Amino acid sequence: MAVIKPLRAWRYNTKLAESIEELTSPLFDVVSDKQRKTLYDNPYNSIHLSVPKPNNGNGPVEEILSNWKRDGIILQDELPTIYVYYQHFTLPGSTKSYIRKGFICNIKATHWDDEDILRHENTMPHSVDDRLEVLEKTQLNVSPTHGLYFDKEFSLEKYMDESMLHPIYETEDYQGVKDVLSAIHDREVIQKFIALIGQQKVVLADGHHRYEGSMFYKQNRKASNPNHTGDEGYNYHLMYLTNGEADDLRILPTHRLISGLEHFDKSKFLNKISECFTIKEIDNPNDLNEIILGKKWAFGLLIGDEAIKVRLKPEVHAQLNWNFPDEIKELDLTVMHYFIIENCLGIPGKEHRNSRNITFERNFANCMTKTIQGEAQMAIITQDIGMSEVKKVCYSGYTLPQKSTYFYPKVICGYLFSSIKEDEFKLPVDISF
User: Fold this and answer.
1) How far apart are CA 24 and CA 18, in angstroms?
2) pLDDT for 251-260, tens place per residue?
3) What integer pLDDT is reported at residue 280 of this predicted model?
4) Which of 23, 105, 193, 275 has the greatest number of C-beta atoms within 10 Å?
5) Is residue 96 a contact partner of residue 247, using CB atoms and an 8 Å limit?
6) Model pLDDT for residues 218-240, shown as the tens digit of each residue
7) For residues 166 and 152, what is the distance between their CA atoms, to the nearest angstrom?
């Protein structure tokens, strides 16, 4: 079962925090090149820790962090704290408002095989290595990953709501989301959080690469420490936990862009795909993502300026011979990767994880632009995946292909940082923690 602890976070000093919105940044895997260039101009923006600039004139990331601590740019909170984090948002095309309620804490980074924390996606090794390198150099969790606990009684929300009466920060981020942070210091209340999470397994929603980086870092440190106890700072990871029973969980689709395939021929591809799918040309490409909505095993294809709806023929599904349980074989994403990407495009399934021919794009309009302009040979338009499907995958012991889910909104970086350096990680002597 999952083990959590409060933490004494490092946060920007009071003066700088007056302009906290100028110090926050998108997560490492969603920040665009244009955003990076702008954020790097601020010498104290969190981007310098989360995505260190190559050949940075300010020195390597470990030197930047040391200077920030020395100069009081960031200061460590005195009290063990559970940090409450609310995100207020709407979805495109809707006026309905949502509030995703959760809290940030340290959580023990155990191996996937221990099943204290359950994953649903594969990772890409180069991204894990990147996150591991930052952690090794800084011994700092620079942004929280996103995990799900399940509490039908919503027993923690009243404490979080009360904490929100006295926010520390309140900003609007790059997504148009209002982010609000507050703090809980009460020992008895914190114990309620620890006890509830300690009764269950946590489902990792977002941040598989960062979590896996922490997991490998722990394994490396443990192997080199003959006096390992399991309580050292390197055993822990920073996580934002939200209630999976709430109605504020939104998972947006992530489309696939195909590029760089040698000898790609549109006519031959369409002939091949017609063996397994029914095909229908769509007059208006802008309608494609809505036309496939709610239809099982239906996908959109953007090739050049053409839009095509394809739907797997039901009798063909039995040909899916990957060694997965039936509930995984039934998923749209499995069908897409097996029948379209492997069978029709010729990219073997074992290569999907690392293939340079497959990239990911959440924005439908960007998919259209890239295919029309020839930056991609094709876009495969997918539907969103439901929370029930994510849970099925987690509890099956299998995983989805990487970038299969996009939990919205993303958390931001810069509100707080969590050190795993032993002298900074330790809490004041208190047997309750």
Assistant:
1) 12
2) 888 899 999 9
3) 96
4) 105
5) no
6) 999 999 999 999 999 999 999 99
7) 26
Residue 394: what residue type?
C
Distance separating alpha carbons of residues 312 and 314, to the nearest angstrom: 6
If DSSP codes are grouped into helix, strand and coil, which group holds residue 365? helix
Tokens, residue 72:
């009081």
> What is the Cα–Cα distance from 24 to 168, expressed in whole angstroms?
14
How crowded is residue 359: how many other Cβ atoms within 10 Å of its Cβ? 16
Buried b (16+ CB within 10 A) or exposed e, 128-139: bebbbebbebbb
pLDDT at 231: 94
Residue in the block written with tokens 């439908």:
364
| Number of C-beta neighbours around residue 344 at 10 A | 20
How many whole angstroms separate alpha carbon 178 and alpha carbon 171?
Answer: 6
pTM of the model: 0.86
Dig out the tokens for 340 from the structure: 């379209």
**Cβ–Cβ < 8 Å for 99, 87:** yes
Q: Distance between CA atoms of 307 and 359, rounded to whole angstroms?
A: 19
Q: For strand 145-149 and strand 140-141, is the pairing parallel, antiparallel, or unpaired?
A: unpaired
DSSP codes joined into one string, 174-212: TTS-EEEEEEE--HHHHHHHHHHHTTSPEEEEE-HHHHH
**How confident is the chain (433 residues) per 10-residue block, as mean pLDDT?**
97 97 91 89 95 78 96 97 97 86 97 90 78 94 95 97 98 95 97 96 91 95 95 97 89 91 93 96 92 94 96 96 87 93 91 85 92 96 84 77 79 97 84 58
Count CB neighbours of 148 within 10 A: 25
pLDDT of residue 410: 93
Query: pLDDT at position 432, please?
Result: 60
Q: Rounded to whole angstroms, how far apart are CA atoms 33 and 134?
A: 19
The domains of the chain are located at: 4-251+409-425, 254-383
254-383: in CATH 3.30.450:
no
